[in-house]
């Protein structure tokens, strides 16, 4: 099974069939997880509808502490590495884990160089101890290709990066060009830092799709970042599939040490606002405690990176309910005949948090409504079937519509939280 970009250039397909990228974030899989844990994790996520796992090939710089010694390079403190020889047992084990995931139907999205390994990035400026030497990239890419490429992963060349200097860009260019030349059948992208929308033009032709991250910051100026970044990529960049690869994680503490954690509602809202604002190729879920694979009595770097609060252990985090919401989102979107959802303006009075999209044939319109109000639209829906779907309890309500002053008015839905309004027109 191999992924390809669809003819519409906005979505994916696998073996000729539409493929909605629904990923879970498990950055620390290769260092922190034992085989029986991995088996349990994969089986649950499969049942929840996920089809992709995002993993960092090298050790995650803000992973939780671990009892194990699974590392690709020599280390005395499990934090700082000596770039002199590769531990091939590490890559053999990583390969086995990937084979287990593929056997359950998962695609792999593998990050090649997280930003702390690359000079001058925001993370490398905080701790440059693990900067990968430029001349070491060649042997690393050889091992990556030999270990993973026949599994046809999506290669994510960068992780959480910005591009502040020529030295940084050179590192990523070298890794990109070496691996793309070897792994000709794989798709490529770059995972950029949160709340960021800058990709140097030198990478554009090599990227098959865009990954942005709305991230984990709760400051007022970042309200709506999930849909604002989707709009920016949709309008300003050459046409490619777009996905939000890191919306706020469920029960993650806000970055910068701000008080509070992101709730099931927060992560669900970020998902729907993303996919209906241009990022319709897919969405990624994340749970605090899973990406770092946290365990009881193990350390967590609350002072590392963006300063997140300590998460719950992985076995508790795996049960967070938001994962089911993401699986339901993917199931619902793939139940329609349309594979591409085109952002559109329907509201007479604009409410930025209410996001609207239409199917390619304009038979179906979707409106994400974070709070229940009546809607006044610039669209004639008097002969349409209009349904409200309660996204907290999956209840359905048929809604009445009327025409006032040449505008369609849809009555307020009866539910307490967010809902998806589905308008199905016969044309």
Question: Explain this structure to me?
Answer:
By secondary structure, this protein is α/β, with parallel strands linked by helices. The chain contains ten helices and 20 strands. The strands form four sheets. It has an eight-stranded parallel sheet. A hairpin with a 2-residue loop joins β18 and β19. It is globular and about 75 Å long.
Question: What global shape is seen?
Answer: globular
Number of helices: 10
Low-confidence stretches: none
- Structure class: alpha/beta
Topology:
Layout: E1 3-5, E2 12-14, E3 17-19, E4 21-25, H1 29-32, H2 35-47, E5 52-56, H3 88-103, E6 107-114, H4 122-126, H5 137-148, E7 154-159, H6 166-182, E8 188-189, E9 210-212, H7 225-236, E10 242-244, H8 264-275, E11 282-285, H9 314-317, H10 322-335, E12 342-343, E13 355-358, E14 364-369, E15 375-377, E16 385-390, E17 396-398, E18 401-404, E19 407-410, E20 419-424
């Amino acid at each position: 099974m191999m992924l390809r970009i669809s003819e519409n250039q906005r979505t994916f397909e696998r073996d000729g069939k539409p493929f909605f990228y629904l990923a879970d974030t498990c950055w620390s899989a290769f260092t922190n997880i034992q085989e029986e844990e991995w088996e349990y994790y994969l089986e649950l996520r499969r049942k929840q509808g996920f089809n992709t796992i995002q993993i960092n090939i090298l050790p995650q710089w803000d992973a939780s502490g671990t009892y194990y010694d699974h590392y690709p390079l020599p280390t005395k403190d499990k934090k700082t590495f000596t770039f002199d020889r590769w531990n091939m047992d590490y890559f053999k084990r990583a390969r086995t884990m990937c084979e287990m995931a593929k056997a359950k139907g998962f695609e792999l999205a593998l990050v090649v160089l997280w930003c702390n390994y690359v000079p001058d990035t925001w993370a490398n400026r905080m701790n440059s101890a693990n900067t990968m030497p430029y001349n070491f990239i060649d042997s690393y890419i050889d091992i990556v290709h030999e270990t993973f490429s026949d599994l046809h992963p999506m290669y994510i060349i960068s992780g959480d990066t910005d591009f502040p200097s020529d030295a940084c860009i050179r590192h990523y260019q070298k890794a990109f060009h070496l691996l793309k030349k070897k792994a000709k059948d794989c798709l490529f992208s770059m995972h950029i830092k949160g709340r960021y929308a800058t990709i140097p033009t030198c990478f554009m032709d090599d990227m098959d799709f865009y990954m942005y991250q709305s991230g984990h910051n709760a400051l007022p100026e970042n309200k709506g970042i999930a849909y604002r970044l989707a709009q920016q990529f949709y309008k300003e960049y050459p046409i490619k599939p777009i996905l939000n690869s890191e919306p706020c994680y469920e029960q993650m503490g806000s970055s910068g040490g701000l008080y509070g954690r992101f709730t099931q509602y927060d992560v669900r809202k970020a998902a729907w606002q993303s996919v209906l604002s241009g990022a319709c190729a897919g969405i990624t879920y994340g749970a605090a405690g899973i990406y770092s694979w946290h365990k009881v009595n193990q350390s967590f770097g609350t002072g590392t990176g963006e300063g997140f609060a300590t998460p719950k252990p992985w076995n508790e985090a795996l049960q967070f309910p938001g994962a089911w919401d993401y699986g339901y989102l993917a199931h619902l979107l793939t139940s329609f005949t349309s594979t591409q959802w085109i952002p559109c303006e329907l509201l007479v009075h604009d409410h930025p948090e209410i996001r609207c999209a239409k199917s390619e044939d304009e038979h179906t319109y979707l409106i994400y409504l974070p709070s229940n109000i009546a809607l006044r639209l610039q669209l004639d829906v008097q002969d349409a079937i209009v349904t409200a779907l309660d996204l907290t309890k999956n209840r359905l309500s048929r809604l009445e519509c009327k025409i006032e002053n040449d505008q369609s008015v849809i009555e307020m839905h009866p539910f307490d939280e967010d809902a998806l309004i589905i308008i199905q027109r016969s044309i």
